[in-house]
Amino acid sequence: MLFYISYKFANALSTCSDCQDVLSQLIDSRKSGTHLIYANKKSSNLILNFLSANNKRHYELFNNISKLFIEKKSLIRKLEKFIYLTDNSNNIIKSLSRILIIPASIANNSQITYPTLFLGENINDCNFYALKIAKNYKKTISPELHNLSINSRRFEGGGGSCTHVPYGRYKSNKIDLCLCIADSDRSYPSANLGNTANLILAQDKLYENQLCDFHIIDFYSAENLIPIEITLKINTEGKSQQQLDLLDEYKKIRSINEWRYLPMKKGFNCQEIRESKATSTFWKRNLSRTGVNLNCCLDEECQNVILPSVSDKTLIKSISVPGSDWEYYLNSEKNKSIMKSYEKLTNTIISWLCAGSPIRT
Ligand SMILES: [Zn+2]
């Protein structure tokens, strides 16, 4: 997260002990590569004046950091969220569109200078969203946000359908910055949100706390966001030619907007595609319009594969695919709904987890 040190905060340093503590924590957290700091010229001078009289080591550090503030200024306009630190004249956190205004007293009684918690359904999801997508997707992202470090020290797997439990805990504690991301589990557009997403939503409503936020990606599962080339490559091992041909059917579906709802980890067999369930009706129509072969037989219990499932190891295996491949495939994506999701995920994750390189002294 980027911390914008306000003039009010800088100006209160000589009398406000909360401001002094928070500044100290913030400089240490910047030094360790945890968060980013910005202050304008006027505030920087006040801070340097204060530090030169009180803390020589922090003076040196801040003096170095402040040389990069020019670059940070353009960054502020592009971040989806940042923190604006102010003095103690107010005693509540205020949210003003992209800006989270936090008084020194609240900052000093929290752990917001610790790394931001990033909560996913499991740790692979965290690595996937942050270190594969947000780190490598650039096509529709402002250049200011390219190549920012992502702090990965506090990634946490929520345990699948239990993800709402830690999320609720962080939201009620009001101590840590926490971003939670989960998928929707919807296999057709008018389906209800899945359990995991619903429970997170319910926890979110329970507590008022702007230090935590969540984002539900409207995709059946995280696998639907993996570039098709990577998914197919991972799933070809040990397959017969007939199985490979069936797997290739995925390429026909990839370009349609409805791809996001495709239950890839289940697939469809002959019986399922003919059922009268809403998901079958929806997918029968969409598979047939993209040219997937649905003609198998009339046997009502036929288990022949129409669209194969992808391995449940697909996501974890995709994590070990090199970043350069990810960068190439993510940025050559043509499906608009997938690109929109890459864009949202990248902007959100970079805003909450952006960090500077550690400073060695
Ligand atoms: Zn059949």
Biggest beta sheet attributes: 5 strands, mixed
Distinct helical segment count: 16
Strand segment tally: 13
Which stretches of 5+ consecutive residues score pLDDT under 50?
none
> What is the rounded distance between the termini?
23 Å
The sequence of SSEs as H and E is: EHHEHHHEEEHEHEEHEHEHHEHHEHHHE
Break the fold down into its secondary structure elements and pairings.
Blueprint: E1 2-5, H1 7-11, H2 17-31, E2 36-38, H3 41-54, H4 56-66, H5 69-76, E3 82-86, E4 94-96, E5 99-103, H6 104-108, E6 117-120, H7 123-136, E7 149-150, E8 155-157, H8 164-173, E9 178-183, H9 195-206, E10 212-217, H10 228-235, H11 241-253, E11 268-269, H12 270-274, H13 278-289, E12 305-307, H14 314-319, H15 323-331, H16 336-353, E13 354-355
Parallel strand pairs: 1-2, 1-3, 3-5, 6-8, 6-9, 9-10
Antiparallel strand pairs: 4-5, 7-13, 11-12
Helix pairs in contact: 2-4, 3-4, 7-15, 7-16, 8-9
The structure holds zinc ion.
Describe this structure as you would to a colleague.
The protein has helices at 7-11, 17-31, 41-54, 56-66, 69-76, 104-108, 123-136, 164-173, 195-206, 228-235, 241-253, 270-274, 278-289, 314-319, 323-331, 336-353; strands spanning 2-5, 36-38, 82-86, 94-96, 99-103, 117-120, 149-150, 155-157, 178-183, 212-217, 268-269, 305-307, 354-355. The protein has 361 residues and is α/β, with parallel strands linked by helices. The chain has 3 domains: 2-108; 117-225 and 333-355; 228-315, no CATH class. Strands 2-1-3-5-4 form a 5-stranded mixed β-sheet, sandwiched between helices. Zinc ion (ZN) is lined by residues 270, 296-297, 299, 302, 304.
